[in-house]
Amino acid sequence: MSLLTSTSSELDTIPKRLKYMSETWPDRELMVFYDGGNRQAYTALELYTLAGRFANRLRQNGFKRHDVIANTLPNSPERAVTDLGIFMAGCVMMHGQVLLSDGTDLFRNTRVSRCKGVIVSDDVTSSAWKLLEPYITEPSDTLFEKFTYHDAPCLTSAIVISRQSRGDKKPLLERFKQSEEDICVEAVSPGDLAAMFCTSGSTGCSKLVPRSHEDIIRVYVKFANDNFVGNGEPYTSILIPGWFGGFPGSAYCCGTTRILSDDYSLQGKLSASDILDMNLAEKCQILKLQPVQVQAIEEFSRSNGGLTCKLKCLQVGGQQVTKRQVRSMLQISERVHITYASTETSVISSCMAEEETCEDYKCGKLVKGVQLRIVDEEGRQCAPRELGNIYVKGEDVFKGYYNRLEDPDTIKAKAFTRDNWFITEDFGYLDEDENLFVLGRNKDAIIYGSVVFQPVWLENKLKEHPDVAEAILVPVSDPLTYHNICACILPRAESNLTEDDIKAYCESIVLPDLGYVPPNPGYYMILKKSFPWTTNSKPDKQKLRKMAEDAFGYIGKDAV
């Protein structure tokens, strides 16, 4: 299958490329969704038509070029149509990530972006709906409803998506499939912002990473040319669309077929059997999964005496990969492709792992266009195999977090050196052959699957509990997620605080975003007289870490 890999001026925005594909390959399936055994395919022409009608509604309801619209929908046909409709209207899609139960993460991002509207499903199980529904002040029979929230004054419109008919209000896709209304394609420039992706929110503050049409096209054309998304064959990825690695840019920009789950009602809870059936039915060449899904497939394989048919290629990234993990993955996949990447940087390095030559934490060679430095704490260049901090530069590295309220932005200032190297906060080394090895994050970070979790914000939340005097979160080794999290709690005097109490409190703080595993502690220690302190009366994190590791750490260490 041929791909659209030109970056010519005639095809320099996402709407232009979608229009071209709708005319050149009208029947090509760009997006295929699975809901259990139910398959829904959307061709280039269907996506262009449905998204164009949604764009027309946006313009009719006062949205203008450059306006920011938050999209809280999970992976689903509705998410694809509304994202593309935002682009076609000349607006900017902001991923509406909701992790905290009080919504402070979402509302902060709507405030700093001066977001004008928010797209939300009225599914009663949706975390976003539970959060946003009380602020819909004038419900209506149209898509657009008045929204009022005191701390986000620019956010005045809720675009409510439903799969159920309510009076004269039909489901979004049914309405546009039956409609004859105009298709809107606003003229946009390559340098216009197209999307704002989210970081994981592990610091309690999910930051916004802006990307222009030009940025997105360049990155995904490079992916297609470097065969990161297959050589034109369908590929499966059920990662979150608001993370740059999960965004369906290869479908929207290059014409690949993206296979993914319909999470509108499933909420991302696919079984290993579901994933394998979906992948086999579509004859996918590449499968991109989160670590918990990889483990589920490995366990399924072991319990069933192996897979009927091995996967073609398993693509993994976002956390350290060990020799043991590679060997386990090669039991279910012919090839394992390891990438080192982030929403801020796109892909930095990659390699095809082989059992005979794989090494712990090896991430391969730098991709074309990336510059990288390994420096010590004094900023001096490290020698081969000398551990240091990883700094990167390159055309695909973002220029700074999005913030329209602060100038200069203090978060951006901390993210870059004076000579504009991005500080990844990872540490690693280069070997003599220029292979990159990434060992982890800074000393306080906990690497929880594909999430880099900064514990201080959750520690502060825990200390708001009336029975908690002190709270420290420490990592413990885990074979799947690299680290799990242990909450070490010092209760107040005379308190009867229990592990169940603190577990329930943690669960009330963090909401499980669709398809995303929130960084809640997996283990708890309620310590009274045994809580360790340093000589200057600070919690002794090293002793707490050892206590937690001794109690809960993974015993089956990697084979040498």
Can you describe this structure?
- GO terms for molecular function: CoA-ligase activity.
- Residues 23-402 form the AMP-dependent synthetase/ligase domain.
- This protein has 16 helices and 26 strands.
- The strands form four sheets. It has a 13-stranded mixed β-sheet. An eight-stranded mixed β-sheet has the order 6-7-8-5-3-4-9-10.
- The chain has 560 residues and is an alpha/beta fold.
- α11 (291-303) links the parallel β13 (286-288) and β14 (311-317).
Keywords:
eight-stranded mixed beta sheet; CoA-ligase activity; AMP-bd_C; 560 residues; disordered C terminus; AMP-dep_synth/lig_dom; 16 helices; single chain; AMP-binding_CS; 13-stranded mixed beta sheet; alpha/beta
Write the layout of secondary structure elements.
Elements lengths: L13 H11 L4 E7 L2 E6 H17 L7 E4 L5 H12 L3 E4 L8 H9 L4 E5 L5 H6 L3 E3 L5 E4 L9 E5 L10 H7 L14 E6 L9 E5 H13 L9 E3 L11 H6 L3 E4 L1 H4 L5 H11 L3 E3 L2 H13 L7 E7 L5 H7 L3 E10 L3 E8 L8 E5 L3 E6 L12 E7 L15 H6 L6 E9 L5 E6 L4 E3 L2 E3 L2 H7 L5 E11 L3 E10 L7 H11 L13 E4 L14 H12 L8
Parallel strand pairs: 1-12, 3-4, 3-5, 4-9, 5-8, 11-12, 11-13, 13-14, 14-15, 25-26
Antiparallel strand pairs: 1-2, 6-7, 7-8, 9-10, 15-16, 16-17, 17-21, 18-19, 19-20, 20-21, 22-23, 24-25
Helix pairs in contact: 1-2, 2-3, 10-11
